[in-house]
Each structure stands twice: as C-alpha cells, then as structure tokens.
C-alpha cells in the first residue's frame, strides 16, 4: 500500500460516506431511526457505527487507546450526524494525506474493546477501516430500499468515473 493509494482510498471513503448521508437525507427522522433488523438496527445506527469506527481507528492511528465507541445517542437526525461526523472525517482525511511509506509500514499496536492487543502494519488497519465503511454502507443501501427509497451509488468505480469526469472538465 503506497501513500498515493492510501490518499485515494480515503478520498473515496469520504466521498462515499457523504453520498450515504445524502441518500439518508431522503428519509424522515422516523424512517432514519426505524428498526429494520440489520447488523445495526436502523439507518441512523448503521451510519453512526461507521462514524464511530472511524473515530476509534483514528484515535488508534494517533497512538491513543479508546475504551468505547463515541456516544452518538443524541445524534438523531441526518443533519446532526453529518455535523457530528464532519470534523472527524476531515481529521481522518488529513491523517491519510500526511502519511509517508515509512508511516504506512510502521507496526501499529492497539488494544481492541474485546479481543486484546494486536499488532500489524498501519496500512492493514487503514485498509480494514475503509473496507468496514464499504460493508456497512451496503447495509444502508439495503435499508433504504426496504423503505422504498433509492440509494445513491457509492461503488468505488463510480468514484473513479466521477473523478475522471471532473478532471477532464477542468482540463
């Protein structure tokens, strides 16, 4: 994993999270929090979990040891979640954009909430985090469909195509 690929991956992750929030904005507050029986009960809970995972992993990346997920109980609307998440999302992007190859290769030691202490190269944890968001955004797409709404595409290829079109238009 190179610094450039890491930057692209986290640019994509940020783009996809924003698109998932945009899709969720179609929902009423009640639909946003409606229990639907997925890994996390609702669209709200699933998006809050993605957000919480990014915050926890960023803490680990920066050498801290969080003991719990952040408290998002008071974040009950899409707008509130977006406002809560945005500062952390920007910190994660800045972190990814500042990495060197040596940073990515360094061994990250971290304590999990339930399974003890692990060690692996930073790049592996970063790939895990991006993949984690992709997995749960897929669940959000299903929950939107279950409620009669159309999800917004967040596939990596759509990100590449959008970026290529933007680059071509500005050239």
Describe this structure in words.
The protein has 7 helices and 2 strands. The protein is mainly alpha-helical and 171 residues long. It has a single domain, classed as Four Helix Bundle (Hemerythrin (Met), subunit A). It has a two-stranded antiparallel ribbon with strand order 1-2. Strand 1 and strand 2 form a beta hairpin. The longest helix is centred in the last third of the chain and has 25 residues. It is globular. The model has no long low-confidence stretch (mean pLDDT 96).
Could you give a quick summary of the protein structure above?
By secondary structure, this protein is mostly helical. The chain is 65% helix and 6% strand.
Explain the layout of strands and helices.
Elements: H1 3-24, H2 29-33, H3 43-61, H4 78-97, H5 101-105, E1 107-111, E2 117-121, H6 122-146, H7 156-170
Antiparallel strand pairs: 1-2
Helix pairs in contact: 1-4, 1-6, 3-4, 3-6
Approximately what portion of the residues adopt beta-strand conformation? Answer: 5-15%
The number of distinct helices, counting runs of at least 4 residues, comes to 7
In which range does the helix fraction lie? 55-70%
Sheet with most strands: 2 strands, antiparallel
Low-pLDDT segments: none
- Gross morphology: globular
What's the Cα radius of gyration? 17 Å
What's the helix-strand series?
Answer: HHHHHEEHH
Q: How many beta-strand runs?
A: 2
Structural class designation: mainly alpha
Q: Output the CATH class name.
A: Mainly Alpha
Note the gap between the termini: 29 Å
CATH architecture classification = Up-down Bundle
Query: Quick one: CATH superfamily?
Result: dinb family like domain
């Amino acid at each position: 994993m190179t610094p450039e690929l890491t930057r692209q991956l986290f640019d994509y992750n940020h783009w996809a999270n924003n698109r998932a929030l945009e899709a969720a904005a179609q929902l009423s507050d009640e639909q946003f929090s409606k229990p639907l029986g997925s890994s996390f009960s609702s669209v709200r809970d699933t998006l809050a979990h993605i957000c919480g995972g990014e915050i926890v992993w960023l803490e680990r990346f920066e050498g801290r040891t969080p003991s719990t997920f952040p408290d998002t109980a008071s974040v009950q609307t899409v707008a509130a979640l977006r406002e809560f998440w945005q500062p952390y999302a920007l910190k994660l992007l800045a972190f990814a954009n500042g990495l060197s190859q040596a940073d990515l290769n360094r061994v990250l030691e971290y304590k999990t909430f339930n399974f003890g202490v692990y060690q692996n190269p930073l790049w592996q944890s970063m790939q895990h985090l991006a993949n984690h968001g992709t997995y749960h955004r897929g669940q959000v797409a299903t929950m939107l469909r279950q409620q009669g709404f159309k999800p917004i595409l967040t596939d990596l290829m759509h990100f590449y195509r959008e970026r290529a079109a933007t680059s071509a238009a500005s050239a």
